[in-house]
Fold:
Amino acid sequence: MLSPRTGDPGPELKSPREPRKSQTLPVSTWKSNSMKEQSTHPGDGMKPSLGSLKRTLFRTSLRASTHKPKEDEGLLRRSSRFLFRSLRRALDEGLTAGHPQGTAVPEKPSRVTDGVSKQAATGVEAEDLDRQAESKSVADLITERQLVKAFEQLRYLETQLVADKTSRTFTQDPTAYARRAMDLCLHYDGMAAEIGAIVREALNSEGVDRDALAELAQVVHLEEEAHQTAQAEGDFLSTPRHWRQHWEDAVRLSAQERVQQAGAKVIPGAAEGASDLAQLLAELGGVVRRDLQKVRSEMQPAYEATDFPVWETYLRAFHSAVAQRLQELARDARGCEQLYVLLDWAANVYGSPDFLGAPDLALPTEPLPPLLEPALWARLESDYTSFLETKITSCFDSILQLEQSRWEAGEDLEVLQGLYHAPLSIDVHMLVAEHVKAAGAISAELEATTLQICARALCLFVPRFEKAFLASKAVSEWYLGAYINACVELRTSLLARFPGTIKELERPLVAATNNFQKHLLQIAQQDLQPLFKVLYTRNWLTQDTLHPLMDKVVDFAHHLEHVTPPLAQDTLQEVHRFVVREYLGQVLRPHERFSGLDRVKGSHKMSLDAQAISNTFRGLGSEAKWLDQAIPSVAEILGETYKDDIRRHLETLIRSYPDIRRDHILAILALRRLGRRRNQNLLQHTQDLLRAAHENRPSSHHVLFEEIEVPTSVDVLITCI
Structure:
């Protein structure tokens, strides 16, 4: 190689043990106009250096070239731009000193210990150079991840280069400074790229190279100590490299790669439903859980000798990556199921203290931002409730169709815990409880909204169900009793569990209960009504015509034993009142009238019937004791032989039943046939009693005679005259 014409900084250094080879890394920026080297023999002056640079660059970038992130490329570009500003400044200084660029001759590349460029001969002893020549190059050290040794050599060379620049060694040859500064820059960037590769491999590989992580942490610490303050504008040498920030960026990118790769084969969509999305989120959770467990148990101990916030940095990185992934999934989520799976995973799976599998690895809530932004969360909840309203309405339609299929098939109902039972109550309870509980697991606001949706849908469902059932052929004591029980159970349990929240549900349930009870009574009345026609007739005097009537009552009461006790008692009392009322109505509207001995026999027969009716209903559990006096009071008036005592019986009857009217008194007197004058006296006496009883009648009085219609007949008219 030809010696440089001018400005040679020192004699050429060669190793006697091995041929010379340059470790200088080539970059395209060498071809910039401001750094072109001119030489009388360009082939001899440039080719060895460029070839060495190419080989070195290939070695240092081989590992990172397959998956190097964009940030590493940007780091090289930013470093190169910053370096060029420093180089232009050095070139300007050289030109200002009176040495035009055209006279510069490229420095001969020589084999030195750093593998970057030949050191200036000034101040360097021959044996140091021999020892360095025997050692590995910086590129090899970086490739073998001996980062501390590589940095120590780079730092030594950087210090020497700064000293040479200060001593104006490169005044006559600024391009030599440019080459050596660029070599340092490229090797520093190569170390930064290797740091990023080590961080990525720590999560992607099966095990953890703790030595590499410890080396990484140590070299970052050494660089921070070596480069503590920023240099003057445009001076690239000895400036902070910010490798700690580069390490954090590599952690963040590594977490993003891991999170984006999780469930990559699963593409959830509207056609697939929620199962694929649930599978994707399960895989995502598994990746995050395993990686963070690996960070805590294997990677963090490798950094223990440094002040690296390993756990906090990885935690923030994964949290941010998961949040970004969920935002992407939220944009494509469709349907009630997918939206709920997404909300549930964010609130209950990822937000669970057991997400990482150990109490000491629980995700903190304070330092980390919300997984989903409040606006996005509100939109997801709104979309979910919109889909949910349609779904719940559809579920109630399905419940109605299921009940209708049972009616058509004539299925027998079950008796559970002594009560008629229909699946309706369980179906509604499960529907409401399932959706409310699921929503409550996500948020209290969503729970309240879901409860309101269920209440509105149930308020519309109950009248529809009632109308459909009463129009069907399945109306019977069994089904009516079962649906009364279902309405009572829904009313008591739902209102007790959600007090005040679904208060509007009480009105339709009470209305349906009353309507079912009314139809249950109608069935009993239709069965009993024909049996009253034989009462107060000639055959009635000599036959036990009441027995078939009481048998019907007992059969009906057996059904009431399987109805909710409060409603069963109320219904039994209504049947009791119906029997007494219809009995008196048949007596006061007789087809035959008795006189003399037959009237006395009829009175006695009425007393026996009254006792039988009272005993039967008391045995069935009826608490309507106020009805026991009605039939005996009328019987005493009809059978009283001492006419003056009739006044006393009438007074007792009016006081016991203040709803009795004057026409009822007339009908009773017409049956007794006391004579015009006595009847007039009794009517005049009872008139004041009736007026007083009507005025003093309590608001919750029992009704009996008020519902008994007494037609006006000739006998009654004669009694009144």
Summary: The longest strand covers residues 414-416.
